[in-house]
Specification:
Elements: E1 10-21, E2 34-35, E3 41-50, E4 56-67, E5 70-80, H1 83-93, E6 97-99, E7 102-107, E8 110-115, E9 120-143, E10 146-166, E11 179-193, E12 197-200, E13 204-207, H2 228-232, E14 236-238
Parallel strand pairs: 5-6, 7-14
Antiparallel strand pairs: 1-3, 1-11, 2-4, 3-4, 4-5, 7-8, 8-9, 9-10, 10-11, 12-13
Length: 242
């Protein structure tokens, strides 16, 4: 059932690391969105310890884009370890979420995410010094009812990080990320993901429905949801050492 999925806004907490990769080849964006030239694509790995649907792991690949005069990030690939997070991501914000077996490892100055089905391994090596970080976040997506703007806010303690991505060829946009990249690791992460908004004019937005039907999902009321025990099965979190 999707009727009892938590609606936006979502407040999430945990830790993440981000890598910025040079765009070697263009990636197709959702209809109505256009690439911003000269900027890197982003890969973000996150372990959420608290969310409206419980702990889960998330991997995001996003492209710099614009919708009219609005610059932001268009998510082109997104994997989550929680079925409820997958459904909410598609229905509420138009993210191309898929359910995946993701594991998270943290040990001292190292963080690592593994996506088993894609044989993808992302490792971040942390560097001092830590600095407080507060950033607005603007997502640009397309739901079944048209393009939407996804506003949000991110804060935490950031450290410079060296990020390495290992992934076999044949994994679409993920294969373009292979190599070493500069990035950030953020501890004490607090992420606010607000409801989607409809763009109007060049810069303004209006309230949008909290959800839009997704043709790739079963109709509302018929979607299957895993139990809490089943959702936890593919997730393995190794708590960072003190």
């Amino acid at each position: 059932m999707t009727d009892d999925l938590p609606d936006a806004p979502w407040a999430l907490a945990g830790e993440c690391f981000v890598g910025l990769a040079r765009r070697r080849r263009p990636v197709e964006l959702p209809a109505g969105l256009h690439a911003l030239p000269g900027l890197p694509r982003m890969i973000r790995a996150t372990s959420y310890t608290d969310s409206p649907v419980g702990p889960f792991i998330e991997l995001v690949v996003a492209e710099p884009a614009h919708l009219g005069l609005r610059p932001g990030w268009a998510t082109v690939s997104m994997a989550v370890s929680n079925q409820d997070a997958r459904l909410a991501g598609r229905l509420s914000w138009g993210y191309p979420t898929e359910l995946a077996t993701l594991t998270w490892h943290g040990d001292g100055r190292s963080r690592q995410l593994v996506w088993e089905e894609r044989e993808l391994v992302i490792t971040a090596s942390l560097v001092e010094p830590p600095l407080p970080l507060l950033l607005p976040v603007l997502g640009l997506q397309r739901r079944a009812d048209g393009p939407v703007v996804v506003p949000g806010r991110l804060r935490g303690i950031a450290r410079y990080a060296k990020v390495e991505v290992k992934v076999p060829d044949g994994n679409g946009a993920l294969s373009l990320l292979a190599g070493r990249h500069a990035g950030l690791a953020i501890s004490g992460l607090k992420l606010l993901r607000r409801p989607s908004r409809r763009p109007t004019g060049l810069l303004a937005t209006l309230s949008a429905p909290l959800r839009a039907p997704d043709p790739g999902l079963p109709i509302d009321g018929a979607a299957t949801r895993t139990t809490s025990a089943a959702r936890a099965e593919p997730v393995e979190c190794v708590t960072p050492g003190a």
